[in-house]
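SAMPLE LOG
Freezer: B-3
Tube label: C17
Construct: single chain, 680 aa
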Amino acid sequence: MSDPRTNETATDSDAPDLPLTAQSADRFQPRSILWAITLVAIAMSLFQMYTAGIEPMGLFYQRSAHLGFILFLAFLIFPITGASRPRGTIGWVVDAIFLTAAFLSGFYIFYFLDDIIDRAGWWSQTDIIVGIIATIAVLEASRRVVGLGMTIIGMIAISYALAGPRGALPWLGEWMPGILSHRGASVDRLVGQLYLGQEGIFGLPLGVAATYVFMFVLFGAFLEVTGAGKFFIDLAFAATGRKPGGPAKAAVIASAGMGSISGSAIANVVTTGAFTIPLMKKLGYKAKEAGGIEAAASTGGQITPPLMGAGAFLISEYTNVPYIDIVMVSIFPAILYLGTVYLFVHLVAMKAGMTGLSAADLPIVRHVLAAGWQFIVPLLVLIYLLVNNISPTRVGFWAILSVIAVTALRAGFTLIVLDPRSGKPVTIDRLRDAVISGLRLIAQALELGARNAVAVSVACAVAGIIVGVVGLTGLGLKFSSMMISLSGGNLALALIFVLLASLILGMGLPVTAAYIVLIVLVGPALNQEFGIPLLIAHLVVFWYSQDSNVTPPIALAGFAGAAIAGSKPMETSIQAWKYAKGLYLIPAFMVYNPEIIMGGETWYVIWTGIIVVIGLVGFASAIEGYLFTWMDKLSRILVVPGVIAIFNPDELIEAGGAFLVLAILGWNWIKSRQLRAQGS
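STRUCTURE (predicted):
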């Protein structure tokens, strides 16, 4: 039996042209710095493990220590000179200054917290100076790790806060339109808001990153280094490989599995895509289609519980809804999205007359389960603890220990029981080597978890700056007023404005940061003025924030897929945008049919679930012009008003739309039977 994933692999030239990554930055690092990165990363992960499962720390202690570690790692991993050349003398001097600033930024609060609280509002000159240094350090770390766009947005926010007649930049306030004008803030007041209070850098976004998110990122790192990624990919291939367009369908399922661990669309593309995209091309998918399918499927990983790219934790904190409830209500929408991508994949395969891979080229389900059953145990532990209302931070701690335990038990059983049966006796040397190998694996996971957390934590710190400015200046209420005015009170127009705003923000911000900024700006209007339930308002904004992964002109997941597929980035992104249409339709359905999230009478919830499935199937078939067979133009046109009617909250209009769509799809099925009979 051959493994389909080994037929083609991505070469160095296949690597996507994306922002600087930790791995690419390592190429020109001296060995001593690589060792320093490893030691700091392991120390940080152990600190987080200790505070999560053994001795919890106070809010400010936890967040400030986390920021110190994160900034220190960021400046170690990402040189001022970039990834293409070594630091040099000047680079080392500059980075030494920023490393000092990183340490000072986090641990000044940690050491002098009691004094700072006592001074509350009457800050010393040292407080202000350190606050300025910390803000500059966070912005510089953002430039290196996340990208220039987010840094510029952070700087614009700071400038906006200082503009105004009473601000440090009164001349800038003269350029502000009337609705955006405010009295302005002094440097001391702004630093107090951003660094010395709970609404800026050390606000809720960083608080979530320093607790829940880090533990689940670390959990994902342990699963990754122990081979869970290969297990999920093999399982997906075994389940779908023989079906038409099998590798593409495997990409959807594998991306859901990987996304539930990593929570990163780009990480999904470059891991699962390296295997699935070459196989899709072999089956007959165009290069742009293969890259687009993988990008759309990988984006689904960011809305798939439990991690949801840190979104579930943030939504829980902002709405005061228990984390397990966020996970539960997100399962069905995630299935709808991934099901829509799966259907698109199936329709493209059927239109092109594709077949699946042969059984000889696929792994066998029982063999895959036999080799990787241990990876299911930590997920069961995680679900059990969440259902029992254990804190997500502590859940992550025990889930990590369960990964270590089952991996050690599996390795021990193989060494002590299975190997002797095959003629490999147990020896002291083999036991010592196994222990050393296990410790190296743990160290590798601890380092990888800290490295993977750098980007999201830095993004949350800058998002905290923006959120702090919004709170200080009252920009959120002004933005909400503008949205209400522009939409004229029309909910559909308001949702379109939110979608456009999320796309624009997504050009410069990562998904998590875009969600944080957007919900602060438009959340009050959606909830209070348009009457959307608070939880649904957050879910809608979070889903819409994902579209920057697949929507041109800036579509990082699409660009990553294009790099692996060898296709043009824009063409691939357009394909990804087409396959990811569920990102726009499903949130709109949540708004007009809130029972799908908030619950209600059983029969009505079931009815709502059925009609949304009918609407999504009708929409996909109209886009592709195919379901059971080719659809004529009239059928494709008539499906559109039927789908729109399904989204109407009126039950009679919903039923009429569902009946129209079912009638058209039924006619298409009858035609396919007739054509099949004629062909035979």
